[in-house]
Amino acid sequence: MLFSVFFFFFSFVLCQYPISQRNISSRQPGREPGCSSWGMAVNVYSTSITQETMSRHDIIAWVNDIVSLNYTKVEQLCSGAAYCQFMDMLFPGCISLKKVKFQAKLEHEYIHNFKLLQASFKRMNVDKVIPVEKLVKGRFQDNLDFIQWFKKFYDANYDGKEYDPVEARQGQDAIPPPDPGEQIFNLPKKSHHANSPTAGAAKSSPASKPGSTPSRPSSAKRASSSGSASRSDKDLETQVIQLNEQVHSLKLALEGVEKERDFYFGKLREIELLCQEHGQENDDLVQRLMDVLYASDEHDNFSCKSGSGQLQKKYFRLC
């Protein structure tokens, strides 16, 4: 009896062994066990040695072709919208494209898109850490490194199914974000004949007396005055260009400050509403928060408190 039981158990093990061997050999290299069967993403890990990179022009052409965008530079990927649509293409339902800001132009809108991307990564068990703080700054190298990795991730997970990116966006216009290095000001061409020193000299020169023979300047003097006028024009053009660049830099800095002001004001307003809504639950903590929100600084002539008890945006500087 004992021998029969042992023989039956040994035969069962031998029958199951080839099946397990076939399962092991059928796994694709680079895939995690069970990822494809459970619908999870295939994680990819690239290094500077193993990574096959594409040129900046090829990678942008690939992005535009796959998700029907009109990007011209790698830096424009800083909005995060393209990555969100890639995830919807690879894993339908893992992200809501209705929440994606395809017309994002400000940094806090970029952050919103990357938060959606992070949530989809977590949902699909993607191990990649998204360097959001670096990407939203629009620097070339940071965005190039991330899209190079994402291209490899896409190749490992795309199953070849058809996908209409325009229809998936449901009519949202995918406007590329502004190029961080784009020049806003166009330097107008001005004629310098009216303001040139020679013109002023001609107007201010006294009229010659009748009968007197005007002396003609020598060719050397004419060449000297022409050369000095040319140098003066070039100096003026250089000054105009430099001042134009300074104005451009100041305008960008002002836009950044205003953007941060609006962003943090929204956060403060949300905190104020929460304090007003839950004021009875924790009186001490809520009162302390309200005191901080409505505190005034007499030295800077700066106040956040109004008669109605609400934060007023007009009290913020640069409004």
From TrEMBL:
Specify whether Protease is a keyword of the entry: no
Keywords of the record = Cell cycle, Cell division, Cytoplasm, Cytoskeleton, Microtubule, Mitosis, Signal
Q: Which GO terms describe its molecular function?
A: microtubule binding
Compartments, record wording: Cytoplasm, Cytoskeleton
Q: Does the keyword Acyltransferase apply?
A: no
**Signal sequence annotation:** 1-15
Ranges for domain EB1 C-terminal? 232-302
Q: Which GO terms describe its biological process?
A: cell division
Know the name of this protein? Answer: Microtubule-associated protein RP/EB family member 2
